[in-house]
Amino acid sequence: MVFPYRQVSSEIRRPVIPVILKNRFPLPEGSGSLIFAQDSLHLRLKSRSFSAQNKSKFVLYSGLIDSGADYCIFNIQIAKELDIPLQSKKISLKGIGREKVTGYLGKVEISINGLNYDLTAIFAEMEEFGHGILGQKGFFDRFDVKLSYQKQTLEIKPATKES
């Protein structure tokens, strides 16, 4: 799968790919919605109803490929919108900024270009990002990744044991 880098400002392009996040558990009969997480400076969620035969919720979202991140991290609003149960134990995150961010572990189904799998991610307050983070556990442990800054492309392949 090859993806172009995404323009995030007039001068910056990043390896950001589209993903679908889904609650792993079916919802009660007659419920369901589609939630759009727009990539802008602020996360905006919009709900739309769809067929009651598909008893689940999902989010169309974006993920920044970040080899320096230990885990996959998504906005906590997504967990709330998808009714994803979160563990009560707080996890403190600290990146390049000085402020610590608190998050909670939760299981989510992710789809990348039609390839679906379950992962445990951290859900944290991160409204300033218009995308999630795809890190070592949950992304790099499942894919071989090739970044080409010169070509402004990202290639990912499902990892094999020989890789």
Automatic annotation (TrEMBL):
The keyword Hydrolase applies. It comes from the Bacteria. The keyword Aminoacyl-tRNA synthetase does not apply. Residues 61-97 form the Peptidase A2 domain. One of its GO terms (molecular function) is aspartic-type endopeptidase activity. Pfam families: Asp_protease_2. This is Peptidase A2 domain-containing protein. It comes from Candidatus Curtissbacteria bacterium RIFCSPHIGHO2_02_FULL_40_16b.
